[in-house]
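REVIEWER CHECKLIST
Item 1: Sequence provided? yes
Item 2: Single chain? yes
Item 3: Sequence as submitted:
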Amino acid sequence: MIMQIDDQDRRLLRQLQADPSLSTAELAERCAMPRATCWRRLERLQGAGVLRGQRAVIDWERLGYHVAVSLRITVEKSNPRAFDEILAAARDLPDVVEIQTFLGRVDLRLQLLARDMGHYQQIYRERILTLPHIAEIEALMQVAVLKSEDSLPL
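Item 4: Structure as written out by the authors:
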């Protein structure tokens, strides 16, 4: 269900996108509204699932993870449980930071991080190639991130 929001909600969401660490008091001040009103609106947005939480954004390179690989996987579909089984196995891989599903020739995309190429090769041989029901796999090595945006204009 789509939630209807007004200009005050949009102001709150814009401020939170810009700085999710703002306290309710700081947010209320920036949005020119009373703290109680701000708190109630935040509660309503959270209750409706619009605000799903806050998270830390980690610079993985500063922690020694210099290789990002996107694996595009086509699932072998002769087994009716193949898709569910490969998804369950992929979710258990600690090096996989994102899983996406698609309609089309590619069924899954796994994003994984490794410290270096040797570490990636180890992950690939020991974990990725053991995933069930892989028909085809293509590895795309990330060279640079040119844009990464979680926010939308409100």
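Item 5: Key structural point noted by reviewer: The mean pLDDT is 94.
Item 6: Recommendation: ____
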